[in-house]
Structures are given as C-alpha cells and as structure tokens.
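Sample 3 of the quickstart, ligand aspartic acid:
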Amino acid sequence: MQDNNGKAQKKPKLALHWQILIAMTLGISVGMLFSSCLGSSNGQVCRILQASHINIDTFAWMGDVFLRLLKMIVIPLIFCSLINGISHMKVEQLGKVGLVTFLVFKISMLIAAVIGLFYVNLIQPGVGFDLSSVTKVSVDHLAVHGHENFLLGIIPPNIFYALSQDNQLIQVIFFALLFGIALVTSGESTSGISKAFEQIFNIMLRITHWIMILAPFGVFGLIVKTVGATGLAPFVSIGKYMIVVMLALSTMLFIITPLLVYFVGGMNPIKFFSGVKEAMLTAFGTSSSAATLPVSLDCVQNNLGVPSSLASFVVTVGSTMSMNGAALYEAVVTLFLAQAYAPLIPGIDLSLKGQIFIVAMVLLSTLGTPGIPHGGLVTTTIVLKAVGLPIDAIGLIIGVDRILDMCRTMTNVTGDCAAAVIVARLMGGKDIDLPDKAKKEIDEVKEENEMFLETSK
Ligand code: ASP
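Result:
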C-alpha cells in the first residue's frame, strides 16, 4: 500500500494479533519461570538468572513504556475524535434526521451497556479475583470521592489544567463536546478549524497505530510482571471475564439487535443478517469499524435498500459515534475491575447508583472511541479513572483483548447497520437531501477509512 505521501509502506510480516498472541505465550512462559524461582534459587536456570541479574524488572519496563504511551495518546486522541465526530454530524443542517440518528445510537448503546452490567452482576467474574500482582502499585491514592458533585465535577474550571491532568478526562470530554457543537453551529466561518481537527485526528490515529505496533512488547512486559509475581492464577480467572464479555456481546448481537431491527426497523432479521454478513465478517477480521465502513455502506445500501444519502450519513457517523460493542465492553471491564478492587480501594461503589454512574461515563467516553483496533481499550481508561480504578489493571486484560475486540467490532458495525435500517423506517423510508458539502465530507471520510482496511490487516 501507499501512505499519504505516496511512499510505499512495508507490510508487517505477521499480523499484529498473532504477534500479541505469541508475546502473550512467551510472557506466560518467562513469567512462570520467574515465579517458580521466587523464594528459591534451587534450579540451575534460576541460579544462572540470579547470577546474571536477570529478574522480572528486566522485562517489566516494556509494559510500563507501553502503558505510558497509551496514557500519552488518550487525551489528544479523544479530544480530536470527538470534535471530528461532531463536525460530521451537522445536526443543525440535518435537523430531525440528525437528532433521530443520535437518539437511536445512544439508546442502543445504553441497552448494550446495561446488558454488559447484567451479566457481570449475574456471574460476578471480579469477585475473588487475585490482584496481588497489579496492586503492587499502591492503590492508596485511589480512594473514590463519590459522585454527588458529579455534575459540578464535569465542568472544568480551567480547561488547560484539565488537559494536563490524567484524571480529568471527563472534563476534557465536556469541553470537547461544547467545542464541537460551537464549531458546527458556526457554519462556514470555522470550516478551516473543522478541517484542521480532522487532519489532526488522522495524525493521532497514526500515532495510535504506531503505539499498537509496540503492543506485543508491552503485552510481553506486562504479562511477565503479572505471571512472574503470582503465577497463572489471574489468567485462569480471566477466563470467566471473557465468558461474560462473549455472552453479553452475543445477547446484544443475536437477540437485542434482531428484535430492534424487527420491531423498530420493520425488517425481517434474517434478511438483515444475510444483507450485512460481509460487513460483520470484515469487522471481525479487521477489528476496525472505520476500516469496515466502505463494506458496511455497500451492504446497507445495496443489500438492505436503505436510501443512499441516509445510509451514508448514519453509517459514516456511526463508525465513530455508535459503538454498541464498545459500550458493552467498557461497562463489563469497569464493573469487573470494580468488583476485583472493591476489597482494596475504599469507597468503590458497586450499588445501583454506582452502576448508573458507570453507564453515564461509558455513554460519554464512547462518543470519543475511535473505530480502530483496541480503540475501546484506550477509552476504557477514561471510565476507569472516573470510577477511581487504576488503569494499570488494563495489563491483565490486554492480552485477551484482540479476540474480544474482533467480537465487539462486529457488534459495533452490526449496530451501525441496524441503526441505518431503523432511522430509515422512522424517517418514513424517504431519503434525505444532504447538502453538497456534507456529501463531499462523507466521501472524504470513506476514502480515509479505506486506509485502515489496509493498515489493520
Ligand atoms: N475496534 C473497535 C471498532 O473499531 C473499537 C473498540 O476497540 O471497541 O469498532
């Protein structure tokens, strides 16, 4: 493939998810070696390791570097993703369609997040979870401050201060929302800024892509650190967490989505699934809603017969703003980790009120989730921070994130296609008259997203 400057880019020899899987296996083996040497230096290998001063820290730094890079990119990525997403959603130009689309997105994401929480409450994967390795990083500073002042707390008294803090992401989102809305309502006079944000967003996506290239090293370091300190116990319990995510995603994908398509969208679910199967498979293979966009559009327009401008609008905006799978996943991860950390961190709120807070955070943060591989993992850090959980815990789940990402991306993309069917029905089956400028923008977004289809292979 060619990059933006026309230079040929080398393709990685092995797909990233295989590299991550190999790194995970190696990390488990090396970690088990260290854990078997803990407290004793009997074996020959242990003695050699000790003599050559090779220990867990020799590798753990790779995980720390990776986590630091993720933290580095999260604010600029989300800030630009949100503003870019809103500037493509010209509600004031599109009036009713814009509003209906936004509501359909948010209601289905709300349902998805609630389903995720339902399964975590039912199966309780975090209860009794062994956190001894990750909690070595002290959790004292993580006392939760309650959500009573939540509304006041999301308004940044100083946006530059909020931008410089890694625990004020909600304030950053709030400001970015206002900024985006102000930008679209200013019309032509600020179109240069909209364009600039779109370009900066592409730069941030590129940096995120580079960071993800380091993921195998990061996963290796994080897993050596975890398994080296505790053995395999956390990975056995992680199986329960994976089952919860898969069960919840299947419920959303194969029960709720067809029900919505049938009752609200007025379409036979069998017709729907056979029309979007290509998009579902592409999403599963690429783990990227953005990369799948051209395929989703094709399916929605040509197989499901959604009028073309309406399909373009709903599916394009949906590829960044509508993420049923990501919302469900973020809710599951947060409540799972909250259950696991509850005995250690004072004030973690697992009550209904606490869970409503998690859902609110999830709905806010998914507005800025980019449709790229592991995009949801990056934005999960926002929700974890807001709830008062340490983001280091991500180290435990990142090793199994790729397979979950494939499944949640499939749920995200199917949700976008379902939203197009539903909005089309709610709008009386008529197409919308998109302004030429909006049509041009949608074409540009389609072209940009094709790039990801290549890079995420
Ligand atoms: N990979 C997902 C997508 O592109 C985002 C996520 O990580 O949840 O839709």
